[in-house]
Structures are given as C-alpha cells and as structure tokens.
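REQUEST ID: PR-0412
SUBMITTED BY: lab tech R.K.
PRIORITY: routine
TASK: structure prediction, single protein chain
INPUT:
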Amino acid sequence: MTATSEIAVHPLVKAARALLPSIRASVERIEQERRLPDELVRALSESGVVRMLVPRSLGGGEIDPITQMEVLEVLSYADASLGWVASIASGTAWATSFLRPDVAAELLRDPYAIMVGSFGSPFGGRALAVDGGFRVTGRWPFASGSPHATWLVGHSAVIDGDQPRPGPGGAPLTQVMVFPRSECTVVDTWSSTGLAGSGSHDFTVEDVFVPEERSFFLYGAPDYQTGPLYKARFFLLAHGAHALGIARAAIDAFLELATDKREARTGAPIRDRAQIQAAVAQAESLVRSGRAYLWETTRQVWDEVCSTGEITPENRALTRLAISASFDSSMRAIDLMYTAGGGASVYKRNALERHFRDIHTVSQHAIVAPSSYELIGQSLLSVSAGIEPTGRPLI
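STATUS: complete
OUTPUT:
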C-alpha cells in the first residue's frame, strides 16, 4: 500500500487497515458464495465505514473526501468486491442528507442498517403521485450489496395522472424512492465477470406506497444539511479510490509472482527481463501519478467549497476528470501486470486473474466509461466560452 505518515492517519483509515487480515482470509469465500460474509458487513458498520458520509447531526462521520478515498483504497486493496460494496453503501447513506432529519433518523435507527440500490436508471421505476406520496412499480439493476440491505433505493419517473411531471428545465422529473427491504424482491442476476461478491443483483417493487418524505431529488444541494460535504456528490470519488486500491494490489501480486517465476525455456528469473522491468516501472508510474492527480484535485475542490460554500462548474468538471483519469491509469497498470504475468495470470490461484476481471467489470460503470470524457470536455468547453454548462452537475 502507499505509505502514509502515521501522524496524519485518520481513525477510520486505521479501522479499515485493521480489517485487512479478516478480508484477505475471506477472499475465496467471497468469490464462491457471490456475496460478502455477514460478519464482514457487520464489521464495516461497527467501524463507521458505512456511515462515514452521513451527517454528524444524524450520528454519522461526515468525513472529508480525502479520508473517504483513503478508507476505500485500503478496503479495495484487500478485496475489490468488499471495497465496492463499502463505496456503494457509504455513498447511498450520504443521500440521507436529502431527507427530512426525522425521516433520515428513522432509516438509520438500526446501527447495522444498510441502504443500497440504484441512483442510475432514472426511469427504472414509475412513481404515480397519490395523496401523501407515490405508488411505485419498477425494476432496477446493479443494486450492489443488496443481499445485506435493510433499505433499497430506486430512481423513478414521477407521473401525475398519465403524464410525466415536469422537472427543472422542463425535463421529466425523477425522484429517488426509498423502500424497506421487506417490500422489495431481489432477483439473483449477478453472475458476472468480476466483482463476484458485490451482490449487484436487480431488485423490483410492485405497487409499493412510498411516502413523499421518503423520496428526494438527487441533484443540487439538500435542504436540510449545509456542510461542505453535501454541496456536491463527493461520494463519486470512490470510483477513483476503488480502482487505485485494486491496481496497488495487482502490482503487489505481480511483484510476489516475479520473486520466484522463471522463464520456461531458459530458467532465468523473469525479473531480469527488460520488458518485465519496464512494465513494473510503468505500472508504478500510472498508479502513483493517478493517485497524486486525484488527491490533489480533491484537495483543491474541497478547499474551495470549505472557503466559499460553492464549487465552480470548471472545478466540478476537473474533479470528474480526475476520477476518470485515475481510473484509466489504474486499469492500464493492471493490464500491464496481467500481461507481464504471462500464462500464470490466467489461473484463479493467481490474484492477478481476479484483479483483471474486477477492474474490467468496473470499467463498464457509467461514471468511468469512455463517454464520461465527452461530458467533461463539453463542460470545459462551455466554461471556456463563457457559457453555463447545461445538464446535471458532473459531481
């Protein structure tokens, strides 16, 4: 792992590090059972990871984004599926900031409550407006951590009568609906290339009543929380930190392999080959530069929002760019290590095989997909031309 001064280590980072032995001992079980062990999920709650982005007024950590990323980087280094679920659970809990405090407190009353689901797929559900709330029917994919959920969330189109309700700018209004797990059906769909243990199944609801106060509009600042953490979707930084953790694990796995691996024809150690040496150096450069870029950009935008209470469109775009770029650097580093491992990389007994599958599974997520660069570039070009960027904020 990347060295950090012990003086500066946040207690949550120390708690994440303390979980490493238990996580590593469970890696094969996570792969085989296609879910996280309940005791590890419980440990994530007890350590404060699940609620690290929840407002302090609701009993959460309300930590800064740098600490968030360091925690998730550590957990993802140990196991990508667990790091992913920690990212999703903590990121979804961040959204309690949009709920009326008494409503949010009820959702969090159980200290082991896990809230996950889908902020994407905004038309995955149909929310018919009725007195006091909505009648919702829908299906949403990629509900990571769903086997452990006590609450599930799903983005839905709001319908008045038989017409979509107009939202900001005239586009159809979408709201995130919060459902008790007992009113949902989790559909076992997650047979995947990687992130085998993330439990990213589909879930459905059928004509479920959701009170108005248990729904919210995801974009913009919440009405009930004024802290800097809730001025932007800082939970998206998890995508960069998660990838960097996997990449560091892949480099370490290759270095361990290279200690003993020899050329089949000559018997010479592979570590003596110039091609292997170059690959290791390139991978280190990619991961270290990607991490430095993401951390520095995050510090700048965090300083801005803490001092001014606002984030400029340019800095929103640059932060999203740092997320995408650090992800791409991580994936390239893993690919280098997988290739350098040769035939040994294809065996499941070698951790490189799992890291390769995991990062390429995550690469399909919309936040880090190649199309994200188009949105970022569009925003930067608008800012350069003195035009206010349109559409949803990039963070």
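NOTES: The two ends are 27 Å apart (CA to CA).
REVIEWED BY: pending
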